[in-house]
Amino acid sequence: MKICLVLYLVHICRVCDSCLVVCIVGYYKRIAHCCGFYKDTFEQLKTLDVSDIDIDTVRLRSHTIGRYRENILYPNLQPYTRIIEDPCTIWSAKPKEVCRGIELHYLDNRLKVLKLLIDNGSNYFKNEYYEKVHNEWKLSTVNAVYNVQKVIRE
Where are the domains of the chain? Predict the structure, then answer.
């Protein structure tokens, strides 16, 4: 298990050889003072920018029907605590909340609706919907998804 953690750190954070030796010996705290392994690296992994999705950090399922497209994303590394569309913040987690899945609903290749699967830490998941109205993200309902999907039925 420790070896998997070490390899993960080397891959994600670009840890140098001296840090790798320190990791194997078991002195994890010393890494923070070495070659640039900072808390910021993990904070960046917890934020998803929907305007620039790094497909190496997510599992992606995509469906397209005519002008409508749906992308379903699940984080590979760790759940998200912030969803942004650069430069505005769409959703930020409250304490003990994380986002475990995202549905992105596009119409004519423009992102219209987000559906977030939120885990509040007490074995309870909830869905939150956000709709883009006049270039601003607003908290919405499931009806926003149905309205975008009307194109399929037409």
Answer: 2-37, 45-153
